[in-house]
Amino acid sequence: MEITSLKPDAIDCLLQNRPHPTAQQLLAFHHANDTFFPNFAAEFLWLKKRDRQGAGKILLMFLRKKHWQQVDERMVNQNIFPLLVRLCILCYPVLNDGTMELRQCEADEILGTSVIARKGKTILQPGEGLRLELSQLPPMPEPREVQRRSKRRRTVKPEESAFVYPFIKELVAESPHPRSRLLQVLLRHARKHPEIFCLAVKDARKLPLEHFSVLDVIQYAAQTAKRSAEPGKRFTLPGELDGLYCRALIRFVPQLNGYCTFNVDSQGRVRKGHSNALLGCYIATERVNGEPHPRLLWYRDGGSL
Questions:
Q1: Rounded to the nearest 10 degrees, how much is the dihedral formed by the CA atoms of 219, 228, 43, 96?
Q2: Among 13, 89, 262, 289, fewest CB within 10 Å belongs to which?
Q3: With contact defined as beta carbons under 8 Å apart, do 302 and 296 qualify?
Q4: How many CB atoms sit inside 10 A of residue 259's CB?
């Protein structure tokens, strides 16, 4: 008996003839999560209507927590995500107005696109061959209209986030490299945007003691702050601070230590991405108390369990 496949949609058409491993990985993801692209587009349209520029990676964390808990960081990693964002823009051209933050990368080579700057915003420009492909694509499902009332916003009062800057300042002061450029960036960010870490702490304290992604907590808090922002207030979360904030969160909420994973710094001098060395912490060699992951330990505590 011959099995007939469903009629390919726009994503299938754009990816099936591109043999690059990342393209094929995203195609498999699309087949397993066929509602992802319309919902991803719907959330960005929500941001667009409110004139809020958004980072796609942060929005993914928001969607993953709300709708796709099974879509973890291994399924949509840092290699596949830029391609996912570009496909979303190509299939929903209304988003190609600078709503999404873009940088030229390998995904543009795979698709035949380029990122251009226009009036201070980044726009995706398809090449000649890709434009011909796009003209022949079947239509994608219309994105739903997100209904979200302002009363659901989680605003943070100044007195609630007052603890953030002193805590980060102490963390930096007690680190082995307090004058590091990256730690100084962290300090300035905590002073300017304390609401993000404050929201992350609130969310972390509600988590059940089971495996979770600490990066999701931080980036979901950043997206929540962005959505809750009053007119004129803009929140940013530079990717270079992700690792530092993740470790700071576990330092502040120690009962979650051992329930999330951390990377071990590569060998060599302290540089960008070496969050453990910068902050003076390391990963334990063994798990304790039945916890799913080794704990994050701090040299200032004596380096013992």
A1: -90
A2: 289
A3: no
A4: 18
What's the DSSP call for residue 97? T
Tens place of pLDDT per residue across the chain (305 aa): 333 345 678 899 999 889 999 899 888 888 887 778 887 888 777 766 655 555 555 566 555 555 444 444 444 556 677 888 899 889 888 888 877 778 898 999 999 999 998 877 889 999 999 999 999 888 887 777 766 554 445 678 889 999 999 999 999 999 999 999 999 999 999 999 999 999 999 988 988 777 777 887 888 888 788 777 666 677 788 888 989 999 999 999 999 999 888 877 644 444 455 899 999 999 998 898 888 899 999 998 876 54
206 secondary structure, DSSP code: T
Give the burial class of 291: count Cβ atoms within 10 A of its Cβ; 0-12 exposed, 13-18 middle, 19 or more buried: middle
Type of residue found at 287 = R
Contact 10, 138 (CB under 8 A): yes
pTM: 0.58
- 54: which DSSP letter? B
For residue 281, give the H/E element and its range.
Answer: strand 281-283
| CA neighbor of 227 nearest in space, from 199, 269, 260, 248 | 199
